[in-house]
Amino acid sequence: MNRLLSRLRLDSLRSRLMLLVALAITPIAIMTLLGGVREREAAIRASQENLQRLTGLAAANEAQSIERARQILVDLVSVPDLMGDARGCNALLADVLDRNEGYVNFGLIALNGDITCSAVPMLHPVNLGDRRHFRRAIAERRFIAGDYIFGRVIRKHTINLTYPVTDRSGKVVAVVFSAMDLAGLDTFVNDINLPLGSILETADAGGALISRRPDPERWFGKKISPSLLAAMRDPALRPVVLLGEDGIERLHAFARVGGPSLSEYTVTIGVPMEIITAAAREAQLVSLLGLGVTTMLALLAAWLAGDILIVQRVRKLMDTARRIAAGELGARTGIGYSREEIGRLAAALDEMATTLQAKEAARSQAERELRAADQRKDEFLAMLAHELRNPLAPISTGAHLLKLLHSDNAQITQTCAIIARQVEHMTSLVDDLLDVSRVTRGLVSLSTQVLDLRKVVDDAAEQIRPLITARRHKVVLELPLDTARVKGDHKRLVQVVANLLGNATKYTPEGGHIQLRLAEDGDDYLLTVADDGIGMEPALVERVFDLFTQAERTPDRSQGGLGLGLALARSLVELHGGSVSAASAGSGKGSTFTVRLPRFTQEAESPVAEAVRHAATAQAPLRVLVVDDNLDAAHTLNLFLAAGGHRVEIAYNGQDAIAMATSFAPQVCLLDIGLPDMDGNELARRLRRLPQTAGAVLVAATGYGRQQDRDAARDAGFDHYMVKPVNTVQLSELLAQAGAATR
């Protein structure tokens, strides 16, 4: 129903109200149309009756003419001079012709067909032996009204009426005839008034016209149409509607001219249907016009009444609903709360707005409280991360420095590498602490590079080795011999694999088996972590990657996390253009997690990258200013930079840094943000205004890692932003680029 209304575009209250009015008027319209049809049929029936009487009158009048001719011929047969000598016979017939109007000749035909005497003198002998009426008169021994002929002697349109002449023994000895002028056949019907466009026709047995009104002379002897001839030959002589040769549709009625013993002529009168139905059509037109006016007035009333009583009030409801939806909860309809439907709807809408207004006030208050709590949480996490990074910075720098100074001692080198990796892992944990909200909103950023997935697996396995050792798990790593190159963030991918391996160790009993397999699959790499642990039910498999989702905890798995690991893993994998899935045969049958990552296609090294690579190997000595209020962090960073051949000066507050920069003119400045006298952003602005450091490379080295901290540093004029503990590899590359630019 709704689809039908939509197709008819009846999608408003007024249009539907008008539709109801139209439906209500439809029965009246149908009755009006049916009444018009009945009036038309009644007019046709009345016309048929009148036309039948009129046609019968015309046929009777023509029958009188033919009956008069028959009586004349009967009287002639009784005159003795008719069969006498030719002179007396001619005189007799001429006298009869003079006494009777409407005839063009009288004559006597011998049995051989020759005309022996005639009222009209004949210039040459005439034989009528081939005439059908002559042969019928002899054969049937009665009066015969012949078909249409064009007279051979008199040269006029006629019909020949014949009567046999018999002797005393009853034998036919001759045939007397009269030739009736067709122009006089209609003498008795000239007074009949016919409507304009009507026709009156008389046809013989062969369908030739012997009488026609109007314009008879033009139609004498012509054949009527086959359809009209068929209607004339119908024994019932039913009235029919026929299309004339002039394209006018007429109602025809038929009548025989006398009985079968008198003639075989048929009279028809045809009256145009347009005239017959004109009165009914006019009446129907008036009815339809009245119906149309009534319908228009009803629809107009429905339109205006619907607009005033319904549409305007509904618009108020709609406007109020839109204002409420837009947040204007104080909006009200202003419609009286009557007992009718719109009033009740207005009351319900206003009540809903009042309720929403109260709930919105409560929600706004709760939102403000949550926002304040969230702000305090962010500030606490930022401060916590800063305080945690400060001790990590000298540890990391000291480890790299020991490795650099004692590169020939394998144990020291290995120990330094372990310290560096664990510091890096602790740093990533601090970063994750700040990234929780960004992970849930999909705002984690990646630092991508081409890397080997095998190294990712090794680093991840090293991170969870203590847990594997503690639970005596048997771990099998199946890695390809060739490099598995992908493009991604090494730290984040290590985090993904570590989360999957850590998840397997948590939910696999002591002494269980864990298998990690890395293999190619078309254009991707498949990394599969399978265990023979507690497994998962199908319902858990479907939501295992949702936040805070965990299997049932038992005492031996009390160290399980908050249910963030797998959710974080899925988000990070999807950021790398990959996918992760889980499968399990059921409870107690282990679980399998599969990571799909796209393979890296080798690309040509760009000229810029090649220049940076050469600059990184050049290690040109630079003047570097280190500003940090943490003495350990500042001195370890000084030792690392000095080992690289750079000249280093240290300042522990902003004022000393400005004074030192004026005389030292550093090319690179490593600035902490949280300084005692002024923050690092203000220090950066002042250094940019000094001619000695206007073009220096400013690097922020801080424990704050929030996005707003990075944005503030960029606005202050920093070129780079590094979170403590500073990645010495990245710092070396940065210094190499600065050295190349200086040269």
Automatic annotation (TrEMBL):
Transmembrane segments: 17-37, 285-306
InterPro entries hit by this protein: CheY-like_superfamily, HAMP_dom, HATPase_C_sf, HATPase_dom, His_kinase_dom, HisK_dim/P_dom, HisK_dim/P_sf, Sig_transdc_His_kin-like_C
Highest taxon in the source lineage: Bacteria
Compartment annotation: Cell inner membrane
Residues of the Response regulatory domain: 623-739
Keywords: Coiled coil, Kinase, Membrane, Phosphoprotein, Transferase, Transmembrane, Transmembrane helix, Two-component regulatory system
Signal sequence, renumbered to the chain: none
Membrane topology: Multi-pass membrane protein
A molecular function (GO) term: phosphorelay sensor kinase activity
Coiled-coil annotated residue ranges, if any: 349-383
Start and end residues of each HAMP domain: 308-361
PROSITE patterns linked: HAMP (PS50885), HIS_KIN (PS50109), RESPONSE_REGULATORY (PS50110)
Residue ranges of domain Histidine kinase in the record: 383-601
EC number, UniProt record: 2.7.13.3
Protein name: histidine kinase
Species this protein is from: Massilia yuzhufengensis
